[in-house]
Design brief:
Elements (H helix, E strand, L loop, with lengths): L16 E3 L2 E6 L5 E3 H14 L4 E3 L5 E6 L8 H9 L14 E3 L13 H13 L12 E4 L12 E5 L4 E6 L3 E7 L3 H15 L16 H5 L20 E4 L5 E6 L4 E2 L1 H10 L3 E4 L4 E7 L3
Parallel strand pairs: 6-7, 7-8
Antiparallel strand pairs: 1-2, 2-5, 3-14, 4-5, 4-13, 8-9, 9-10, 11-12, 12-15, 14-15
Helix pairs in contact: 1-6, 3-4
Amino acid sequence: MPARTHADRCPGVLRPWIADDGALVRLRLIGGRLPATSLRALVDVAARHADGTIHLTKRTNLQLRGIAHADGCVPAELVTALTDAGLLPSPSHELVRNVMVSPLSGRLGGRADLRPVAESLDLLLCADPSFAALAGRFLFVLDDGRGDVAGRSLDLGLVALDASSAQLRVGSQGWGPVVPLADAPSALLDLARRFLAVHGRGETALWHVDELSEATATLLDAPRDRDPRTLVSSDPPPFGILAQDDGRTAEHVPVPDGVLTPELAATLLDRAGHEFVVTPWRSLLLPDLETA
């Protein structure tokens, strides 16, 4: 068990990171999902309050940097603008809304559509004040059975076994029970509560499940064997047009160095549908495009 000497400092909007070029704020997106209306508003926010660009992270989140600040706080106008854009839905839990999902889940391939699971997990997470005590780096990873995010380090998560069930994950190496997908959000948060009960307090509190000396034994009533169906792995989808299962298309677009410039954002907004998906590969998906 590591000896922590300070509390987690992972940034958010209300707890920015103060860098040499100004304040940096991080915006959590559940499964990387970003409404086109929110991106359009964020382009304007970045131009008015930050350095004009939007940075994509490997955790499917967004960052703004180069922001003016006073006493470690960003301007109230920035907070209001981000809230109005739907990018700060839970100020009390903004740091802990870390939920990664297979980016194409429910649209192309995979064993199950995990978007409803992620949405339910987020709602239950934000509804319980105790979960605000999780570290800002605590990560849930939901793989829909294709294996594209199954190799990521995580705290809690699942791999879909079929359209209606999944095996829970406990840390990067541990495996929990097989549960119906409908029960998965509450089951994951039950494990998160167990982690909070043993992770310590104050500046020495643990940040990650993997930091527990016996994570699986501590958080589970009994260890479980790994289901062979979780032994999956796949590469990121190729860039370009992808055929969705419903007959529509998605476009996978590279974002050089993960930096979305105003010019690239404008081009993508012109041809996007109602939503973008930020991927773990610091690229963008434009899903649900109508075929010509």
